[in-house]
Amino acid sequence: MGLVATEKLAEGLVLASDVLDRSGRMLLASGVELTTRHIRMLMAWGIAEADIAGVDVPQQQPVASSKVDDALLQPMEEELKLIFSNVDLEHPAMAELFRLCLLRKVSGETRQAQP
Amino acid sequence: MRRAKPNLEHIVNNATTVYSLPLIHDRLTQAINNPKASFADITTIISEDQGLSFRILKLANSPMFGYHKNIDTITKAATIIGTQQLRDLSLAISVMGVFKGIPEELINMTSFWQHSITCGIVARILATCRREANVERFFVSGVLHDIGQLVLCTAIPEELAELIMQCRDSGQPQYQAQHAAWGFDHSNVSGEMLSKWKIPLIIAEPVANHHSPSKAVTYPAEAAILHLSDLITHALQAGCSGETHVPPLDEQAWDLLDIPANMLGTILKQTDAQLDETMAILFDKGHQ
Q: What is the CATH number of the domain that holds B284?
């Protein structure tokens, strides 16, 4: 089992546990095979993530897409790590925040590069 | 020459004689708490202050509320957003006016308010995610959370400058350095200022504990939201209040909020959508 962000869900994945809304009401039961309609419904309900069977590690999408080369990414990552030096990056929330901030830095930079 | 150790009570007492909330805030609070006051009494008080009404209407029509630019009178705003909520918004606007004209050698004001407003927006979005009632109080606590820094800027500029420099180099969180040197930090100053101004505890307690959310016994969830918002705002590097590094996370506060980590992406996206316009409305040339 592993948590996967709703936007990364795909048809055919199987839920490893029940999906509940904030008040604990069940939206989808464990064992359901997801369809496109299910995923759309989860988005409409504002569900951020679902527990998917067969996914081991929490899905961390690499920041670098094919468009960004390492030479650009690395100094940014170093710079950001400096600002995050008081933060425990092992914590899942902080790891995600770091990833998002790096992503913003990279996309901001490439946006500036191509006017 | 050896300087005397800064004293929290002394600093706050001095500051409250210099900085006072505009009369309109007291009048609004009295009217809202008075069961005999009518809805019209409350909207009249706001309407009498043209600058304030103008900003409230602009805010009400901004992406923060998403009412598609249909709110054209204070009465309409009070009906849709609520009178207490308007009072909270007017508090945020008033306090920004109170601190104008602070010397900018230490902290740039545009940058300071950008940090504060971003924090307010993030707090409001986090509160919305948690289905909290009356989210405007989260916005105002975000806008006010670092006013202690401004007070310190004028009260003990040399001491503050020293610590800002020191932390910039060492990477030590500012509030920890302040605590080590003086026995209190800017969050205590912010909190004391708010209680002197008789701002309700539901706003003052989270502000006073935004670096120590576990110490907020009455409003732990509010303090946890503000703590996380401050951290996210630092991570986004949106503006600056004198602190150059992201403060450490209080894991207890994170667990208390029960927000999935995957939600952070959505929260940042929503923040982006509201930030520029809110900043333009609350902080413009006319406010300087």
A: 1.10.3210.10
Q: What is the pLDDT of residues B162-196, one digit of tens each?
A: 999 899 888 899 999 999 999 999 999 999 999 99
End position of a domain, from candidates B79, B98, B117: B98
Q: Do B171 and A22 touch (CB under 8 A)?
A: no
Mind telling me how many Å the CA of A61 is from chain B's nearest CA? Answer: 12
Residue B237 Cα, gap to closest chain A Cα (Å): 9
Q: Give the model confidence (pLDDT) of B237-283 as tens digits.
A: 998 888 889 999 999 999 999 888 888 988 999 999 899 889 998 88
Q: Are residues B126 and B27 in the same domain?
A: no
Q: Model-level pTM?
A: 0.86
Contact B262 A91 (CB under 8 A): no
Q: How many CB atoms lie within 10 A of CB B107?
A: 22
Residue B191 makes CB contacts below 8 A (sequence gap 6+) with: B148, B204, B205, B207, B208, B209
DSSP element (H, E) containing A4: strand A2-5
Q: Which domain holds residue B49?
A: 21-98
Q: Return d(Cα B18, Cα A86) in angstroms, integer.
A: 35
